[in-house]
Description:
Strand order of the largest sheet: 4-5-6-7-8-10-9
Structural class: alpha+beta
Number of helices: 9
Helix content: 25-40%
Number of strands: 10
Order of helices and strands: HEHHHHEEEHHEEEHEHEE
Largest sheet: 7 strands, mixed
Shape: elongated
Distance between the termini: 48 Å
Radius of gyration: 21 Å
Amino acid sequence: MNMKIEKKYIPLANYFSATKNPTVTLQFTEIEKIMGQSLPNAAYLSYSWWKKTKAPAKHYLAWTAAGYAVKYVEPKRYVVFDRIEPTNDKGNAKANENILLIRTAAHGDASSLSNLQKKIEGESDFFLYGHGERLLSTQKTRKQIIEWNQSGHSLILLAILNGQHVGYLMIEGYKAHRASHRATLRIGVKKESQHKGIGSLLLKKAEAWASEKGIHRLEVTVLETNSPALTFLHEHGYESEGIRRKALMIQHNAYDEVYLAKISIN
């Protein structure tokens, strides 16, 4: 009889499915970031929880279905998984390959997401908020995640690289029927994780979700001096539509913002 994996462990299963690395080592905190929620107490208290491979337990399917087994557990710290089913593509079975997962943010991600936003905004002068300006509490972020997931027209995507939250993309749609075909994008990737295809994958996932929801116009604003972002968006089919003059004041200097959009409707 085929068993279905528990819903809370599906992101972890997707993470293992995304890699062919012979060994995967994950901190307990990294596993929880991948899942978007906490591990059960038994995972922290019992080595046997990790070694279970029989019903009624189902959590182990998250790694065994991808051909991995638990090799070692350092209680309350980390778990080492070994690949027990060899991959047919030996060229890809290399250690230390990056494992990238894109998933919808869950309410358990609130603290990590709010910290991630502050971190990314503090690394750049191209965002609305400067370093230390954004007052973003875990409670407020949790409320936003829950409301957006329930709305059907807005969504937050998280990029998880090797067990760490490194980027996000927010799609904010409109309740009004006449504007329900469009949404605004906000995207950010940590400086150390840029140039690894994360932004492109976030956009791809966002555009696929938008299409399913009948959203055919995606809008974004970019600071005029943010050449890398403008180039990135143009390469992905976004067209400049106009300028909002003197839109932001940064260190007493006024800067324009560029309006861009991608339309997938005739």
